[in-house]
Amino acid sequence: MQAIYVILCVLGAALPLSQFLPWLAEHGLALPLLLQQAFGTPVSAFAWLDVGVSAATVIVFVRVEGGRLGMGRLWLPLICLFTVGVSLALPAFLLMRERHLAAAQR
């Protein structure tokens, strides 16, 4: 599973950033424009609200499951969440969790 999570981390970072970085290069940190485009249509608003709920779920999951297992560095998937998104944060946490559980079994 660790190899799958690594692949998902790479995809989860590369795919969203391949769309965002060119936009950022063209428009800079134009937050009003970003929000206008993100919520410009009902389908885009649907997608961003879905991402928002998923992000909140990842935050709760990382804190609760990571705390329950006594994992360290729980800030790392949260940094991934706020710099790239759920697509990187969730597989990063699941990779960390797999490695933590494997180390505990040894």
Task: Identify low-pLDDT runs.
Answer: none
Instruction: Tally the helices.
Output: 5
* Average pLDDT over all residues: 97
State the helicity in percent bands. over 70%
Question: What separation lies between the terminal Cα atoms?
Answer: 17 Å
Mind summarizing the main beta sheet? none
Extended strand count: 0
SS-derived structural category: mainly alpha
Order of helices and strands: HHHHH
Shape, per Cα inertia axes: elongated
Total tally of structural domains:
1
Strand content: under 5%
Question: Whole-number radius of gyration?
Answer: 16 Å
Give a verbal description of the structure:
- It is a single chain.
- The protein is mostly helical.
- The protein has one domain (2-105).
- The protein contains five helices and no strands.
- The chain has helices at 2-27, 31-38, 42-69, 75-83, 86-105.
- Helix 4 (75-83) packs antiparallel against helix 5 (86-105).
- It starts with a helix and ends with a helix.
Gist?
86% of the residues lie in helices and 0% in strands. It has 106 residues and is an all-alpha fold.
Q: What structural keywords apply?
A:
elongated, 86% helix, 106 residues, mainly alpha, 5 helices
Blueprint of the fold:
Layout (H helix, E strand, L loop, with lengths): L1 H26 L3 H8 L3 H28 L5 H9 L2 H20 L1
